[in-house]
TrEMBL record:
PROSITE patterns: SBP_BACTERIAL_3. It comes from the Bacteria. It holds the Pfam family SBP_bac_3. The keyword Signal applies. Keywords: Signal. It comes from Oceanospirillum multiglobuliferum. Residues 22-273 form the Solute-binding protein family 3/N-terminal domain. This is Solute-binding protein family 3/N-terminal domain-containing protein.
Amino acid sequence: MTLVQAMPALARSYDDVVASKFIEIAVYKDFPPYSYRDPQGAEKGIDVELAQHIAKEMNLDLRLRWITPDETLDDDLRNHVWKGHYLGGGIADVMMRVPYDREYSFQTDEFGQVKNDLVHMFAPYQKERWRVGFDQDQIESLETLAVLRYYPVGVETDSLPDIYLLSVFNGQMRNQVKHFPDLMAAFEALSQKEVAALMGMQGQLQWLQVQHPEQKFQLATVALQGLHKLDWDIGLAVHNNYRQLAYALGDVVEAAAKNGVIEKINQKYGVSYLLPDLYKTTQ
């Protein structure tokens, strides 16, 4: 039996993209409210609608690449931005929902080499934030995080909330942390009274709140003491060789962030829009 290794996929320059009359944008599969298909198969989500806006502003057709997350974000960037999966399938012109974070961009491996030196991360379009939501049928009010020492809390396995809640208060919450494959599954458990609270991204929690008005689900304003990073900016990524494409995309995204386009998209999904720090300093 002979195994044939797929050749590295080739990224496309700005000129290649324009000449082809389409742009391929990678979004995560089954990731509401950012990118998903509704029961009728229609493409929905904040990232999907922003991708549509980008393509329209650049006078290009849009091709969405629906991707399944690998073990790490580094793997996703390798598979869909600069190299391609070893099984083949090519790469996208741009990937969405990538951290716009200098510390992450210049992370090094055990040999001191920058892990993602072939990736350019740019154009923040949204700030995301960690929040806690709770079921008012089970918890009347949540004034402090310490209350959750006495209630089961749902988190996505191996997420930052998972790690945080296992260690906060010197591990006193460890036995109350319940693990789920994603926040949607955790919310289903909450609706069945199997957990009393959730910790996850604000956008997802707000979307779940809007989607399930029958649930007495509220977001708390409790302080998350000791959390290394409460919020972070989300942006785009392209192959590092193609900065001209990044400049064109960045102009569209910056205008959409400043003129209210992205805020209106977020409002459609019940999500509060948090403007990235970059545009707060340049307005």
